[in-house]
Amino acid sequence: MVEKQEFMINMGPQHPSTHGVFRIVLELDGETVIGAKPEIGYLHRGVEKISENRTYEQVLPLTDRLDYVNAMGNNLAYVMAVEKLAGIQVSERAQAIRTILAELNRIASHLISIGTQGLEVGAYTVFLYCFREREIILDLFERATGGRLTYTYFRFGGLFQDLPEGWVEEARDFCKEFLPHVDEYEDLLIQNPIYKLRTKGIGILNKNIALNYGASGPVLRSTGVSWDLRKDSPYLMYDQVEFDVVYTKNGDVWDRAWIRLEEMRQSTRIIKQLLDNLPEGEVQAEELCRYVVPEERSSYFAVESPRGELGFFLVSDGSLKPYRMKIRSPAFVNLSLVETLVKGEKVADVPLIIGSLDPVFGEVDR
């Protein structure tokens, strides 16, 4: 008679398939995962505490370094939280440009997610294709902001500066050329029979568990919940454009990848509408002074980042610095599902499941 014995293995923190500095201790019965203990904190920099010792303006560059794959979205959530706190108004042109840039960054983020999903099943070509299109988006960002990864382009009351001459036409050209490439990703990876065998029915997430954990973004929408802050709690220009909330019902790895693919099409749809109807006017508030000094109050503002609900809670004591700042990180909340999702799956599927949550650990650890 052969005796069975469970054993433990380490995955990370140096493991490339953990999408960053993340450690998970797996308890295995053969190739089957029967337990998992995730460990985070390897990238912790204390951003929330540092922010309490800086002026509101000095905090802005720190937000780029949280979810560095979606730096525009982090800038946006923080800036709009401060504007809500201080009662600052923003022009329509600035709002439209903010929306365009946020959607371009959503596409860039999803391209990384789709591309690395390809790497995890041995499909290297789609990874290169995704980074090819992402490079064009980074070129657009560099033209507008001067940066390629961190931007600090949004300002309280508007933008650092208006878009450069010819930028709108370049963005239109990108949208025209990008949609056929999305079809390529779908053919190469998402509808690939081998990829389907590896991902369908793997890492299934139950709708009730997702809601109880506070999941959001594509992770929640893959369980059949049609919840998107751009539709359900509109901000910027999202109530003035047409787009569909993409959701499925199976809650597995394949569904989460397909949602991100389809969201790139919807983001392109939003961008094209705004480029064709870009308002004229200034991009900075006239009444804005050098320093923001809100009254004693608190505010919370959330945006729909590529990973879900990204929110900033700010408490003002009437000084130049926030008395308290708390970040509601969607990547952190979604990552808490890992232990539930990997149980009962094979050890080879663990990187796929982690990758399907699309974590960025600068945002997880903060």
Keywords:
single chain, 366 residues, alpha+beta, Cytochrome-c3 Hydrogenase, chain B, 3-stranded antiparallel sheet, 15 helices, 13% strand
How helix-rich are the residues, as a percent range?
A: 40-55%
With helices defined by DSSP (H or I, 4 residues minimum), what is the helix count? 15
Q: Give the overall shape.
A: globular
The tally of beta strands, per DSSP, is: 8
Poorly predicted regions are none
Q: Write down the CATH class.
A: Mainly Alpha
CATH architectural designation: Orthogonal Bundle
Rg over alpha carbons: 21 Å
Largest sheet: 3 strands, antiparallel
Q: Please provide the ordered H/E string of secondary-structure elements.
A: EEEHHHHHEEHHHHHHEEEHHHH
CATH superfamily: Cytochrome-c3 Hydrogenase, chain B
Strands ordered across the widest β-sheet = 1-2-3
Summed over residues and divided by their number, the pLDDT gives a mean of 89
Distance between the termini: 51 Å
CATH-derived topology: Cytochrome-c3 Hydrogenase, chain B
Percentage beta strand: 5-15%
Given helix and strand content, the structural type is alpha+beta
